[in-house]
């Protein structure tokens, strides 16, 4: 799996929480339920064309093992990059800062590196923090906290 992408499990959580996807050329995805497609390194696909009105995507296999294929958009799960997630957040007014932090690991000879993400929103006192094994996972963790907060606000409006 490419390090700058979220994992399929995180991508599912993002989609379930309401993060929409308008496919663009250059996006990465995995295809669910295909005969020759799996979730993993071999199941990583690059969007190379978005035919208008057809509901299909033209995909190229990241490993070069399969010819260009046409797949129904509904069977694709978007694997966003850290950059795409940051763009989404910044478009909604968040300031995004990412970096690496070293965390002690039990019984390890050296501390493990973790990636962290801090979101701030003008006028709000408390930042939103996320972490993950790579930058994309850290940004996704923080974004999930944003999406969960908006879902909770919609379910329990304040008066």
Summarize the structure in short:
With 159 residues, the chain is of the alpha+beta class.
List the helices and strands and how they pair.
Elements: H1 8-16, E1 28-31, E2 45-49, E3 56-61, E4 69-72, E5 76-78, H2 82-91, E6 95-103, E7 112-120, E8 128-132, H3 135-155
Antiparallel strand pairs: 1-2, 1-5, 2-3, 3-4, 6-7, 7-8
Helix pairs in contact: 2-3
Quote the distance from N terminus to C terminus: 46 Å
CATH topology of the largest domain: Double Stranded RNA Binding Domain
* Beta-strand proportion: 25-35%
Overall tally of domains: 2
Oligomeric form? single chain
Physical arrangement of strands within the biggest beta sheet? 4-3-2-1-5
Radius of gyration: 18 Å
H and E order: HEEEEEHEEEH
Helix proportion: 25-40%
Q: Shape from CA axes?
A: globular
Output mean pLDDT.
84
**Major β-sheet profile:** 5 strands, antiparallel
Low-confidence region ranges: 36-41, 154-159
Polypeptide structure, described:
By secondary structure, this protein is an alpha+beta fold. The chain has two domains: 20-78, SH3 type barrels; 82-155, Double Stranded RNA Binding Domain. Helix content is 25%, strand content 28%. It has three helices and eight strands. Strands 4-3-2-1-5 form a five-stranded antiparallel sheet. Helix 2 runs parallel beside helix 3 (135-155). The longest helix has 21 residues, at 135-155. It is globular.
């Amino acid at each position: 799996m490419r390090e700058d992408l979220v994992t399929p499990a995180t991508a599912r959580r993002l989609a379930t929480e309401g993060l929409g996807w308008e496919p663009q050329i250059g996006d990465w995805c995995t295809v669910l339920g295909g005969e020759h497609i799996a979730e993993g390194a071999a199941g990583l696909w690059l969007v190379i064309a978005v035919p208008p009105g057809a509901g299909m995507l033209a995909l190229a296999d990241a490993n070069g093992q399969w010819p260009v294929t046409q797949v129904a958009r509904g069977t694709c799960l978007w694997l966003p990059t850290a950059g795409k997630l940051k763009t989404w957040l910044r478009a909604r007014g968040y300031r995004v800062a990412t970096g690496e932090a070293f965390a002690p690991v039990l019984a390890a000879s050296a501390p493990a590196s973790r990636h962290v993400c801090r979101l701030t929103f003008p006028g709000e006192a408390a930042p939103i923090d996320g972490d993950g094994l790579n930058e994309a996972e850290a940004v996704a963790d923080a974004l999930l906290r944003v999406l969960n907060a908006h879902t909770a606000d919609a379910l329990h409006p304040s008066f």
